[in-house]
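User: Please predict structures.

Assistant: First:
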Amino acid sequence: MARSDKISPVRKQEFYSDFLINFDKNPITGVLAKVTNEDSIKQSLKNLVLTNRTERFYDPLIGSKIQSLLFEPLDLFTADILKDEITNTVKNYEPRVTIHYIEVTPADLFKATSENGYNISIVFSTINIPQETRLDFFLSRVR
């Protein structure tokens, strides 16, 4: 084993990179911090799903109608419609992703929590990175 192998850290290859959503700076270098590979794709997927159609000025077709579906009854039928909408949006606007499955479950109404919404889990793999990645988030309407 060479001496340089012991000293130099192993760097992962960057296939995809993007800025952080809140435009934080790297505390050491002072430049904009970035996310890479799976984290970049996760950020992109979440932005795409949460963007309403006609919200982007120069490309009004990008986005989904998920925000309007949150005012429908909290049941499995609406969860299935949400799943189809997420699938269509990702297939149409995110070519770097292969979706394995999407799970949309309504929050339990009988628990003591007052949160009405859906737990969304997207399992996907990217084109250059074959391992599966999971994105989980809670989708609720803004009052």
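Second:
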Amino acid sequence: MNIEIGFTIAASILALCALAAAFAAMHTAHCGRSRCESLESSIASLRRDLELATSISARTVRRVQRVEHEFSDVTERVDLVESRATAGSESLDQAIDLARRGVDADRLERQFGLSSGEAKLVARLHGRDKLN
């Protein structure tokens, strides 16, 4: 009977080890499923964030394009003024001299190609009627 008791004890120990291994495998599978669900949730959240960022980026691009379109004439105007400043600084000096002699803004505008606002500014700043 001693051999039978030994085999019984060995079989019991083997059964307990198999049971422990089965529980460990189930625990590992459960943890793996939980981790997979967590990752799927994170991916879904990242997808929503990416869609939001894409939407914001598209709106920003449209706004930048609209601003560029609205202010493209400003760039052209600045270029025109800069080219006038480098090429026509003498004519501006002449316009100032004439304004000091009493020439009105309309004539400055016609004679020197100044805009209405520029001619009025020169006449007001340098004309005979300026405030001291």
